[in-house]
Structure formats: C-alpha cells, structure tokens
C-alpha cells in the first residue's frame, strides 16, 4: 500500500529526540488547559500559536496537535473527578464517570476513560492512514440537509432513552433550544432574545451552562447532603489500574461501535461533542441492562470517550484534505498552517507529503505518549478526591469561577454560572434530566442553521430531506429512532392487553 | 514621517486638543481584541501583527490577543467601545466595524470607536465549481438571469450577501443567497456542488482552486490582481479577469482590514498606534503575509482613513437600504 510507505517516511521525518520532547511538552500543556475548565483546547492552541511562528512547520504542528490530544485527555479528568467538563466534548463523560468516582472508583473510571480514548484516537489515525483520499471526497457530499439529518439523528438517539419521563426530557431540551438561540442569528443576521443587554449579544456559552448546571449544581447537592464526597475513603491502588486494563476487552463491542460513530461524526464534520453524546445515547439504548446508566456504568464512560477521541482525530482529515476544519481547534491549527506558509487543501497531500505524513505519524506517537503520561498520573488525580471536602469544595468553586471568566473574559458570565448552578440544583431535586438541555445548547443553533439553509435551498419544500440516498437514509434512521419507543410502548401495551385478556377469557371458559 | 506628523496636527486641531509635549507610550499590556473566532481571517491578521510587533520590538509592553467574535464580531466591538478613553485596547476587524451598527441593532455605534489604521484590503472573486459549464462571468450571468442559482457566503447581510445583491442589481440576475457561518464552509459547499457560486476572498478558496475543484471567473477590482506567481497549475492571481471586463459592471469591491481604538482617546494615542501599524506594514514579514493570503497592500490612517470609511459606509448603506436591511 502506497499510504503505508508514505507513513513510514513520515515516521522518518519525526523520529528525533527534539520532536519527542516537543510531544511531551505539548501533551503536558494540553492536559493543563484541558483540566482548567473554560480554557479549553481552541484557546490553548491559539495561545501557543505565536510561539510556533519561528519553528519549522513539522515541529510546530507536532507541538500544537499534541497539545490538542493532551487537552482532550485533561478534559475527561475533571469531568470524572468533579463533574466539571473541561472540554465541551467531555460532558457526556460526566454522566457515568462522576457517579463512578463518587462510588470510590475514580481510578477505574479514569483508566477506562484514558485507555478507551487512546483506542478511539488510534482508530481515527488508522482510518486517516488507510482511507485519506476516499474519506475526504465523502465529506464533500455533505450539505445543509445532510448536516440537519445528522443532528436530528443525534437528538433522536438521545430523546427517547431518558430514564425520566419523556415530557421532562422534552422540557429540558426545549429550554436548551431557547438558550441556544440567544445572540446573533446566522440566517437573518439579527439579534434574538438579547433584551438590549450588551452581555447577551455573544449568546450564552454552553460551557458556562455546563459549569453551572453540573459543577455548581453538584456542589450545592453535596453541601446539602453533608459536606463530603462519598468516594473519600477509597484507596488508590496501582493494582486497580492494572485490573482495569485487563477489564477493557470486555467492552469491545461498545468501543467498536463508538469508534465508528466517532469517525463518522469527525469526518462529516459534526465534531467530537456531537459524537460523544450520540455514542453515549446509542450505548445506553443498546445495553441490555440499562439500570446502571447514569449511576456509574463503565460503558457510560467508555462510549463517549472513545467517540470523542476518534472524532477529534478524524476531524483533522477534512482540515488537511479539504481545508474544512472539523472542530474549533482544527480551525485554529488551519490558521497556523497558513501562517507557516502552507495552504490547507487537497494539494497539501501532493505538495508537502513530508508535512502531512509527518503529522499523521506524530498522531500515532503523540497519542501513545499522551496515554502513558495520563495513566501515569491517575493515582495523583484520584488522590485529589481524598482531600476533605471543606478544602476541595471552595477550590472547585474558585476554579469554576475563573474558568467561567476565561471563556470570554467576561464578568457577567460568573453570575450566569451561579444562575445555572441554581437551575441545576432545582432540576436535580425535581428529577429533570440535564443532558438534553446541554445537548440542545450544543447542537441547537447548528441544527437550526442547517434546517433553514436547507429551506432556503429548496424554496421551502421538505422534500430536500429525502432528495438523495444519503440524507434520506439518515432521516429515516433518525425518525425510526425517535418513534421506536412509541412503537415499543404500543406493542408492549397491546401484548399486555392480550395477556390480560387471555386469562380473563380462560376464566370465562372455566365458569 | 512628515506626512504623519501633519496628519497628527490636523487631527489635534480637529479634536481641539493641543498635543501634549510627551508622546504617548503604552505603560501596561495592550489588549488586541479580535472580532472573529480563532483561525479566521481577522484572527490571522491580528496575530501576524502581534508577531511582527514582538519581533521588531515596536512596543515596550506585551500584547495580549483575545478572541471576541460572537454576533458577527459585534461582541468585540461592543467590548472595545465600552472602554471609552482606554488607550490599551485595540479592536481588529474589517468593514464590519461600521457596517454592523447599520444593519443590526447592536449596542454600539460606529462613532463609539476611533479609527486607527487600515492595513490591507482583501479582494473578492467570483468562484464557480471546477466542473461548471461556464467559463466566463458573462456565461454565469446569462444563466443567473433565468433564476434558481445559489450563491453561498459568510454570514447574513454581511459583505458576501451585499455583493450578491449588487450583482443582482447590476446585471438583472436573480441569484439566491444562502448564509453560512464562514467563508470556509461556503468554499466546501461549492466544491461539493451544493451551491452554484461563492464570492470568497482569494485565500479562502485557494486550496480548492489548486485541486481544480473550483475555478475563478472574475475579480471585483478595477485592475487585475498584481501577483504574477502561478499558484494553481498554469494559472495565477494575475490571470483572473476583472469583473467589469468579464461582464459584471461592478468596479471595485473590497474589504479593508482595520484597527480601532475606543472612542474618546487622545490624538497622540491614535498617532502612536497608527505609527506602529505603519512600521508593521513596512516589514518583509507583512509583505509575506499579504502575498500568502493574496491581499492587496493598503495603508490608511488619519483623515484618509476617515474619508475611506465614509465612502465605503455610504456605498454599502445604499445596498442595505435598497434591500430593506437597515436596523433603524
């Protein structure tokens, strides 16, 4: 295979102590920005960008991409330990990761998250290596109707799986849509729901909502329940990491499914956040025993993490091959490419194969370096949970507030976080699910844009969603997912009635 | 130098303030407010300037770049305008600085910002899919008159849609406009044949052009682009005909890259930053940035800049008015 030969050349370009050192620096910095909520990978990479102007492009991209991997890993850490996602794409990890940590399984949850993330990323790179040309062309088939269909599929895979009443899920999701529409509307160019408040024109960042709903909301609950983390007595044992590693093969099906979802969402490019939500939704739906989901099911950690990282990695392919960034971080790196004098786009593969394949080779090495670095630090992170709540609680509040400020350097966001914290507390008390609200905030405006663009393209006809096999297939799948609970419920009721009716009939016969 | 001194005098006179004896120097870190997200054209513009200032030590205090790109850039301009009289905040944008308040109810007015300098002018090119039948802009217009063609572009009621409206007005075409989040998205939609054309800046479509996925029909400029490097096979930027000679009677349409201070700053502050920007525009790094991104070199400051802003603002407002897009 031609690509394998090119990849080996790529390894030839990057295998030097200098580059390995850059990888470790990048990953470490990345973990740091990932752990701090609000800073996030896109900001971290833009902060580092000016430093790379004097480097050669290969070293520069190694540093930046490794920072990206590090940030993705770091984001999962705070999700699991404190219920604060450091990155948008690790929100879904909180659903089961945090309950696991609370139950004293922090090391297990972290190890699961890191290893499955590493596997997801590797799968993404393998896909890039083998299929780069073909996949890049596939992404071109995506237009607004296809995007809408993908988002619709994500909503549908989520809406019906809730443990709570579907009406509560709907209320939560609608609130999310309303929040997502604050700010400037792409299609009309007008401001919506800003009430002439200058702070609102930038919209409500979904990160702010997440930090408040999950972080502050959880702290309020913990305080009410008696000022301590339940996981406090858990001992951190190195053996636990080893035991968890042995446990991984048991989740092969979840990992395989999530990888496919992740790669698909990464190249389309719907992005890692949608991928992790969708993968979590699918894992939960297809699980035979759903009772543990949301209460600390390991599959609830493995699924979003695998998908998040395979999507994050795959998202670099459209950037390299088409000049379309698949994620915010990819967009920053693309800016970097242009400053280094490279034009992202289809010709990059032919003009600068040393750069492209050097980058791909560095993805293999960088992810391996990242997994080793983060697993080595698991005991360190997990031991944070043993610090008394009276000390760690205020620190978390401080981290959340500074994180909220960093999202847009805006003081008003700190008040918003407090507001969202109260909402999160009330939602939990009344047993409303938070996840649909977050999902709607993340994908709501994108779905709206895609829908309205489609309507502009078709002149207002819904036929456009069935205009070719790709979009029709996606829409049909989405509708099927959406309606399946209704169908199951109907079948269940009918069967029950027949079941009820049958003994009744027998009774009659006996009489 | 003499010219800029005289501009300083004129401006001092205009503001009715005597220039203080000691020239202004920033004494704390200067914030560069980028009115676009990370990775966009404005972001690269500001970060290139940041790098050049650092390399040649044009300012004594460090520069901090922040991205405030929500609401089409309004976030950054509102933020900057809120620091009235603050000499340590610079906003980086395009003509959106003075167009946003005209087309949307944003909480700032163009007068709340002080123009410092314009450093580059990004051009607009009419692009169609590489496999499209038409080889000239006239062919495209003929097809567009039948209706049903779609132009995709960045944002709504912004530069791309305004230009589309101007094309319709000048030729009698009936082209629909589909707004996307960025020029990059519009580029890919065109390469995938989901839209019929876009009016992207040269750098936004370069990669696809090199791969023959899209092709340029004409450039909205009174003369051809000056670069004669062959960027896409046999073709270079200089080979693209002007739209006027190719069949679309629009003379000049470009987008300045601009730098702004908050309102109410002292004239010597404006002068200081205008000088820094002029020095930036004279470096080889700046020339390389312009060449890499296929933008035209322009340096405007002082009264020249003010009148350029007025002319551009008036021309575009006319289109906005015709389409009924004025906010007030």
UniProtKB/TrEMBL annotation, chain A:
Pfam families noted in UniProt: TctA
Keyword list, A-Z: Membrane, Transmembrane, Transmembrane helix
Xref: InterPro entries: DUF112_TM
Domain DUF112 residue range list: 20-439
Transmembrane segments: 20-40, 60-82, 109-135, 147-163, 170-188, 200-221, 260-283, 319-343, 355-378, 384-404, 411-427, 464-491
Listed name of the protein: Tripartite tricarboxylate transporter permease
Provenance organism: Rhizobium fredii (Sinorhizobium fredii)
TrEMBL record, chain B:
Entries under Gene3D superfamilies matching the protein: Bordetella uptake gene, domain 1, Periplasmic binding protein-like II
One Pfam family hit: TctC
Listed CDD domains: PBP2_Bug_TTT
Residues in the signal sequence: 1-23
Keyword annotations of the record: Signal
Family note: Belongs to the UPF0065 (bug) family.
Protein name: Tripartite tricarboxylate transporter substrate binding protein
Species assigned in the record: Rhizobium fredii (Sinorhizobium fredii)
